[in-house]
Amino acid sequence: MKKQLLILLLLITSFAANAQSYTGYFHDNYAGVQSVLFNPASIADSRFKTDINLFSISGSVQNDLYGVRLFDVYKDGYDFNTQSKISPSNGNNGLVNFDIMGPSFMFNIAPKHTLAVFTRARSISNVRNINGYLVDQVKDGLDQSGDFNFKAGDVNGASNTWAELGVSYAAVLYQKNQHFLKGGLTAKYLQGGVNGYVQGKNVSVSYVENVADPKAGVLASTGEITIGASQDFETNEKYDFDTNSRGFGFDLGLVYEWRPDYDKYDVSKAKPADNNFRDLNKYKVRFGLSVTDIGSINYRNAKQDTYNVTGVVTQQMIDDAGNLYDFLNDNYNKTSSSKGRKTNLPTALHADVDWNMYKKFYLNLNGDINMANSDKLNGITVANRVSLTPRYESRWFSFYVPMTWMEYSGMQVGSGIRLGAFFVGSGSVLTNLVSKESKGVDFHLGMKIPVYEKKFKDTDEDGVIDKEDACRKVAGPAENKGCPWPDTDKDGVFDKDDACPNVAGPIENKGCPWKDTDGDTLLDNVDACPDVAGPVENKGCPWPDTDNDGVLDKDDACPDVAGPIENKGCPVLDADKDGIPDSEDDCPLLAGPIENKGCPKVSKATLEQLKVEAKSIFFETGKATLSDAKKEETSKRLDAIKEILKNYPNAKFAINGHTDNVGNPKFNQKLSEARAKAVMDYLIAKGVNPANLTSQGFGASKPVKSNKTAAGRAENRRTEIVYLGNL
């Protein structure tokens, strides 16, 4: 660079500031350990068993002053000053980022807990509020600029390079039905590298050209410029690494996932092959929020110089200066300090919304908001940014197209791809292919070793995954390593449960054939008395004889009381004590001789009594109706006859009716029959067995006295009860 531009170098430095890394790649569910840099909560419940980053790098350049056709810049003879399009303002900005991620890894320490360890080298710078009109004025050199007078403003620039060793922990905080929340924390040890900064206050510059003698041109300036660095580069241009320049930082993050189909991923219903659904993205919409780079680095050997640049210098004085420090020290007053200085990290708020549109297609909206003071001396900040990124992702392949609005450089569109262990992309490549005035360029690439969670194979679908299945093509229980249990005798009882593995038998007898222990031809499984022989009809049990009378209960009419076989096992009864068993006694309640079948014989005395009683049965004259006048007497006689007859249940009696000869013989015959039947009906009504009775009328054919006298006729009108013999 020409010496005449040394003073302006303070104002424009190198257009550098922190830009975002890995644009479009961070939010892929298979970004792995890289995603922890954006939100430490993202690694919980990830799709990885472990993810090892071997090497990855990201770089970006953005500004709002120069616009170029990017691919022309690399051509021979390209003149940046004349061929680029400049867009000056009173406060132009520019940015560059360089981020290297070294060996890093993440892994699950438990189903809901994940750990990541990463190494990282970062170089970021900021320069803000550059007067673009001044830059445009002097781009060809002071001696070619002509007269000018500009207010340079409050230029503020800072640059920092450092290394990080980070440890991230993430866990599932809440999980219920469709709601899923996880959180993460990163703690970082920071090792400082090189830090430098410049800040101007109320700086104004003017130049008066001397056409006759260009070296006599005069540069006048006012204001104050502060320059600082992590060491005193004025006395020692060689960089000295300082292990004491260190600090600590933190990142915090939360991720909420809405899982409306949570019932599909119910772990309690998962099969072993499902691997608890760890290989699947289970959300419909994901919301992420994080704050990164909270912390600072303390440079203990830092030096700071503040110059009062009010004064006048000539072109010759600029040309004679050996370096920037010589020029400033020779021409301006300065105040120095070596007390050390803290450099803040570029604290930022990050947010993203990820929508699973359909199967493996996603749409992501994310952004960065600067949280650091951009006007602070030695302040490092990020540029505000919003990106909309459609993407297709699977385990071994992703393709994404980030569309980004970036503070300073405006809209840019890029593309990226992930193929297994490799990824490469740019947030601006598509824009730079077509734009003639691109103001930004970025890229990212890397190589890693991903070890994904996956659904296990279960070829025979027996619930035992193939890697644990000794018989992968034949279903079998887990207890037998996925192999079917053998059944040597083919009886349907597995050998492990078969007490007789070589002889077929029913399941109920543990695979053994049933025995006939008591030899009664009835197998033990249906023998109610397997140890005692018995007939089939009694389920293999012997018939009982409860009363021990020699008559088995099944044939014993009286199983609880002993009795002879002839009486079906019942004892012989003789209620009337006449020596004739009741079973053979026609009159079991009345004593009688054997020859009369146990019934009492009808004696002459009984017949005489019946004769006496029958004589006192009176009827209405000419009728078969009992006499009302002597009703009580007649009834008493009939009841006495009834009682006598009931004592002879096997005797047959005839009730005979007789009349005198007075009147029509046919009438008398019918009257005698009716009166005999009337007596019989009365006795039957009183309980005498009808089988024991008959009735008959004889009219006047059997007189016992002469019908010539009234007394004789009265004797002939009679009822007789005659014993006919036994039934």
TrEMBL record:
Residues 1-19 form the signal peptide. Keywords: Cell outer membrane, Membrane, Signal. InterPro entries: Bact_OuterMem_StrucFunc, DUF5723, OMP_bac, OmpA-like, OMPA-like_CS, OmpA-like_sf, Thrombospondin_3-like_rpt, TSP_type-3_rpt. It is found in: Cell outer membrane. One of its GO terms (molecular function) is calcium ion binding. The keyword Signal applies. Coiled coil: none annotated. It holds the Pfam family OmpA. Residues 606-727 form the OmpA-like domain. PANTHER family: LIPOPROTEIN YIAD-RELATED (PTHR30329:SF21), STATOR ELEMENT OF FLAGELLAR MOTOR COMPLEX (PTHR30329). This is DUF5723 family protein. It comes from Flavobacterium frigoritolerans. The lineage of its organism: Bacteria, Pseudomonadati, Bacteroidota, Flavobacteriia, Flavobacteriales.
